[in-house]
Specification:
By secondary structure, the chain is an alpha/beta fold. The protein has 14 helices and 22 strands. The chain folds into 3 domains: 182 residues, FAD/NAD(P)-binding domain, CATH 3.50.50.60; 142 residues, Polyamine Oxidase, Chain A, domain 2 (Alpha-Beta Complex), CATH 3.90.660; 92 residues, no CATH class. The longest helix is centred in the last third of the chain and has 22 residues. Flavin-adenine dinucleotide binds next to α1, β11, β16 and α14.
């Protein structure tokens, strides 16, 4: 007896995998989802064990924008979305003095004033818009301009650190092309899922029930004939797993595609392989620290985000609660993330605490750290990076090439395939899953199979 032929196999149960499978299932198709991890959600990953009532996000943290699809997802899942006042709640530390974004008179002694803040937020981005030369990196651009150190600090937080990379790796022209596509500017209207992004993924996946199989690492996709075969291995039992379908939707991260963790037989088109090589792939490590008896809250108020221009920013997931026990999440980016990912857990926590102490100086005491949770996205075999970014030489056309279907057999989704200005986000990833589902439905209608 021949193997069951499904309409569609979806590889990966992150936001686009779930969105795609949901839409196809609703359209009446026979869908199977294969996911390598023992959980759904991918780069949405929340720790709720460190401190009761605190959803500490180790992956995606915010919902960026007021109108994006994630709000609807959360409402459908019965979850609470609330404002996450990142910009207003940010504290910048510059030369040992702490300032808020609203009052930026700060560092003493020093030549900085509120203009430095305006420069970081408006002046430097406008200067970038006016730049008319050949492609250079953000670092080269910043070095050439005579910007105030504090202005540069604000700019680097919003326009470099949020890409989870270093200024030496982002292309000025590439970033401008990317930004031109975006409908809502980054950084000003942010929200969070109170119960955590992991809960959102779990609730969305419920709808699909046993159509989602966890713990299966896909290793090969054969797609030469009228059908495609997805081959993998159950990570617990070692058992070989094979699924045959008319179409396959691939939603694995750019890092997984670049590493060649999945063999395509025949290989993917040159346009797609070139896109996989050219798009920037950022690096991050997240460390959630449980701090007991800290004076951070008393000394720095209801800050949400602490940043001193080093490799890490420190985010507070439970900004509304009182007391001296709290969780801070350190988001470490770029080269330093790669270096720290190689450290042991203890070394990594110590390095992070040391950086936190150096950042706040004698402004406050961080108390005692007696618990932590870690995610090394840069070496995680099912992510192999944080997310895609505009590297020099990359262009939204590379994202289009990555998104393009291969024949009527293979379809692609995932944050890196978002070519309309919202890559590197959860909502962008969801949109790509829906786009891929629509392409599958259109292909069925056109080919009649
Ligand atoms: C530290 C960090 C902070 C972030 N902050 C934000 C934020 O504040 N706001 C925001 O909107 N976005 C944020 N993002 C980005 C956001 O998390 C991603 O854009 C989004 O989750 C990507 O979804 P995706 O499905 O493309 O990839 P993923 O979520 O990674 O899903 C891909 C799935 O494929 C699976 N997979 C991989 N390899 C295989 C294989 N061989 N076989 C089977 N399955 C496989 C993976 O396990 C995963 O479940 C952040 C990301 C990181 C890492």
């Amino acid at each position: 007896m021949g193997a069951t032929v499904r309409d569609v196999v979806v590889v990966g149960a992150g936001p686009p995998g779930l969105a795609c499978a949901e839409r196809l299932h609703q359209a009446g198709l026979d869908v199977a989802v294969l996911e390598a991890r023992d959980r759904v959600g991918g780069r949405m990953w929340t720790d709720t064990a460190l401190l009761p009532g605190t959803a500490a996000e180790l992956g995606a943290l915010m919902i960026h924008g007021r109108h994006v699809v994630t709000h609807r997802w959360a409402a459908e899942a019965g979850l609470t979305v609330e404002p996450y006042p990142t910009t207003q709640g940010a504290r910048f530390v510059c030369r040992g003095a702490v300032s808020s974004t609203l009052r930026f008179p700060v560092p003493r002694p020093g030549p900085f004033g509120p203009t430095a803040f305006l420069q970081g937020l408006r002046g430097i981005p406008r200067a970038l818009d006016r730049y008319a030369g050949p492609e250079i990196t953000f670092a080269e651009f910043l070095d050439r301009g005579r910007f105030r150190p504090a202005g540069r600090l604000v700019f680097e937080l919003i326009h470099v650190h949020t890409w989870a990379t270093d200024a030496e790796e982002i292309g000025v022209l590439a970033a401008r092309e990317e930004a031109a596509q975006s409908t809502e500017p980054f950084g000003f209207r942010n929200f969070r899922v109170r119960e955590g992004y992991s809960e959102l993924a779990r609730r969305k996946a419920r709808f699909l029930g046993e159509r989602v199989r966890l713990g299966v690492r896909v290793e090969r996709i054969r797609w030469s004939g009228a059908l495609a075969t997805v081959e993998g291995r159950d990570r617990t039992s070692g058992e070989a797993v094979s699924r045959t379908a008319r179409r396959v939707v691939i939603t694995v991260p750019l890092g997984v595609l670049r590493a060649g963790s999945i063999v395509f037989d025949p290989e993917l088109s040159e346009a797609k392989r070139s896109a996989i090589r050219t798009l920037g792939l950022s690096r991050a490590v997240s460390v959630a620290l449980r701090l007991r008896g800290s004076t951070l809250r008393r000394r720095l108020g209801r800050f949400i985000l602490l940043w001193g221009g080093s490799a890490s920013s420190f985010l507070r997931p439970s900004f509304e609660s009182a007391g001296t026990d709290e969780v801070l999440v350190a988001f470490t980016a770029g080269r330093e993330a790669t270096r720290r990912a190689a450290l042991s857990d203890r070394e990594l926590v110590d390095a992070t605490l040391e950086e936190l102490r150096a950042t706040i100086g004698d402004t406050a005491s961080i108390g005692t750290c007696d618990g932590y949770a870690i995610s090394r996205w840069v070496t995680d075999p099912f992510a192999l990076g944080a997310y895609s970014f505009p590297a020099p030489g990359s262009h939204p056309s590379h994202r289009r090439a990555l998104a393009a279907a291969e024949g009527d057999r293979l379809f692609f989704a995932g944050e890196a395939t978002h070519f309309a200005g919202e890559p590197a986000t959860v909502h962008g990833a969801i949109e790509t899953g829906r786009r891929a589902a629509d392409e599958v439905l259109k292909s069925r209608a056109t080919t009649g199979s």
